[in-house]
From TrEMBL:
Record's protein name: Cardiolipin synthase B
Family annotation (InterPro entries): PLD-like_dom, PLipase_D/transphosphatidylase
Gene Ontology MF, one: phosphatidyltransferase activity
One BP term from GO: cardiolipin biosynthetic process
Domain (PLD phosphodiesterase) ranges: 130-157, 308-335
Pfam families named in the record: PLDc_2
Source species: Puniceicoccus vermicola
Amino acid sequence: MTQAEPTHSSSDGIANHRCYLEKLLGIPSTEGNDLTFLRNGCEIFPAMLQDIEEAKHSIEFLTFVYWKGDIATEFATTLGKKAKQGLVVRVLLDSFGASSMDDGLVETMIEEGVDVRWFRPFSSMKIWRYDNRTHRKVLVCDNRVAYTGGVGIAKEWEGNARNPDEWRETHVRVEGPAVDGLIGSFWDNWIEAAPGDFPKFDTNGDDQPQKGEDQILVLRSISRDTGSDVANMMRGIIGQARKTLWIATPYFVIDEPMVDLLCEKAKEGVEVKILLPGPHLDRRFEWYAAAKTFESLLEGGVEIHRYDQTMMHQKLMLVDGETSIIGSANFNQRSQRRDAEIVIAVFSKSRHEELKGHFEEDLKHAHQENEGSWAHRPWWKRITERFVRAFKSQL
């Protein structure tokens, strides 16, 4: 009697990815979550401000970028108003990323009762720590709803990516048990900046309510020169890819082992697409640092697409039609080695399809690089690239 062939359900791939990342990172995923993917400031900011307005008890807000513009004023005003109503409002700003913030906005919040702290301000006594930033973007309202992704609080993110003044971005709203992971990512940084303000949570068995069907793994990483858990997650899930690997990132500075891994996947038959900013890139220094690797990637069968409509700032990975990774981490050396980041892995075919649809829409506003034209770029660009590569580990 022959043994029947094992059958595999459509969820086997999802389970494999989930189990792999749980073992690799030592972090369990949670079920019962509900996600809302938000595109561009026209969707992101109204949702965030509405949840801030509706908060009854507490608001925790952490960001790397807080600059200027109408939206910066609106956030400061709204946070200040909630503090004046008696809510506990904590705002943590990275002292490097938010250094150009209008001092008047900080003063407004403090005067209204917001507890504003700065993460790792410059100190000649601890200058070595200044290179390690918090790049996380986290908003938590009433410990029940949370946001993360790539958005900063500045005029560049306003609008709907219709022109170069309106950046392309993706952010995510989370409800359910995964919110606890985002709460922890805020407090992880806050405790360092405000060691006297340690969290006092109600521990009477008040678990996060089940809100939906999304299964999520929340990963917060800290910086270390050998590579962070974000780097391990990225390398690990890329190694698991069998059919498709789509990556969108604004800053793409990778090491040779990662170049080899991406080319290896392409040669195995995996469809590898990388979506990067095009002519509206905000930091050309990093582009020059990455340019040399494009030759190897194109030769290895990796597709490189460049977004033409405006600056593209979203951070996204889509793997095998099943797993989606979104958060604050760029696909570069700084996010993988130097900065504190927050990312979530979503194990869901339907959510993957939703983000895939967004990615395909973005490709309509992009052009694809080809091996021939890239190999014949001007000599002066090659010289610039060689010079900039000396600073690659900082980018």
